[in-house]
């Protein structure tokens, strides 16, 4: 099997992002985005998705975290799509429910080629530390749009904002891990009755 490794560079007037993903990694992460909470969430994707992630970002943080947060999501989605290639042999679907203390979040995703986000998180506070919790949705939307995945997030329990967000990233990581895994029974075929994704 060819290595499923990809790199993406995204440079705008607002941000400069470099990212590298290895879908068959060991969970190694080096995240330096300038947004500590985002780095912490990227570490969840790496650790629980067994995806090696190297990301560095310089952004207009003197304004706020929005552009950096969104552009890291864009670059992650583009890099994921590139690493998946033609998607031959992948399982395609992934589902996981992750608890974190009182919080429980379920993620269901499909690497379908059709971008759609159904976002069901109810985060009770506007900030976790200095991180604006509205940016969680912005990150997921950017990933969805640029990887062309269908992503459903459902919160079944939770009152602590940090726990809810982190549970969502852990569930996303495990669901993504299932979806990108190679299914040996497919023998390299596309997981679609249409013959295209």
- What is the share of helical residues? 25-40%
Rg result:
16 Å
Number of individual domains = 1
What's the main sheet like? 4 strands, mixed
CATH architecture title? 2-Layer Sandwich
Q: How many distinct beta strands?
A: 10
How many helices in DSSP terms?
4
Mean pLDDT across every amino acid position: 96
CATH topology: Ribosomal Protein S5, domain 2
Order of helices and strands: EEEHEHEEEEEHEH
CATH class: Alpha Beta
Poorly predicted parts: none
Subcellular location: Cytoplasm
Pathway: Amino-acid biosynthesis; L-histidine biosynthesis; L-histidine from 5-phospho-alpha-D-ribose 1-diphosphate: step 6/9
Pfam family, one: IGPD
Catalytic activity: D-erythro-1-(imidazol-4-yl)glycerol 3-phosphate = 3-(imidazol-4-yl)-2-oxopropyl phosphate + H2O
Describe the model.
With 197 residues, this protein is α+β, with helices and mostly antiparallel strands. The protein has a single domain (5-186), classed as 2-Layer Sandwich (Ribosomal Protein S5, domain 2), CATH 3.30.230. Helices cover 34% and strands 30% of the residues. The chain has helices at 36-49, 66-84, 134-147, 161-180; strands at residues 5-11, 15-22, 29-32, 52-59, 93-100, 103-110, 116-120, 127-128, 131-132, 150-157. A hairpin with a 3-residue loop joins strand 1 and strand 2 (15-22). The longest helix is centred in the last third of the chain and has 20 residues, at 161-180. The model has no long low-confidence stretch (mean pLDDT 96). GO terms for molecular function: imidazoleglycerol-phosphate dehydratase activity. Belongs to the imidazoleglycerol-phosphate dehydratase family. Keywords: Amino-acid biosynthesis, Cytoplasm, Histidine biosynthesis, Lyase.
């Amino acid at each position: 099997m060819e290595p499923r490794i990809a790199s993406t560079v995204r440079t705008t007037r607002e941000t400069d992002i470099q990212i590298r993903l290895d879908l068959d990694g060991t969970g190694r992460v080096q995240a330096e985005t300038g947004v500590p909470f985002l780095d912490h969430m990227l570490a969840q994707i790496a650790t629980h998705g067994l995806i090696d992630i190297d990301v560095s970002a310089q952004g207009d943080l003197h304004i706020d975290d929005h552009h950096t947060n969104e552009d890291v999501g864009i670059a992650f989605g583009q890099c994921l799509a590139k690493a998946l290639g033609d998607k031959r042999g992948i399982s395609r679907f992934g589902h996981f429910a992750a608890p974190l203390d009182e919080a429980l979040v379920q993620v269901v995703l499909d690497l379908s080629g059709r971008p759609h986000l159904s976002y069901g998180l109810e985060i009770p506070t506007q900030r976790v530390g200095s991180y604006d919790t509205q940016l969680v949705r912005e990150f997921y939307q950017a990933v969805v749009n640029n990887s062309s995945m269908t992503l459903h997030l459902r919160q079944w329990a939770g009152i602590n904002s940090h726990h809810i967000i982190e549970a969502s990233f852990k569930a996303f990581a495990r669901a993504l891990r299932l979806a990108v895994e190679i299914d040996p029974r497919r023998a390299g075929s596309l997981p679609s009755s249409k013959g295209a994704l």
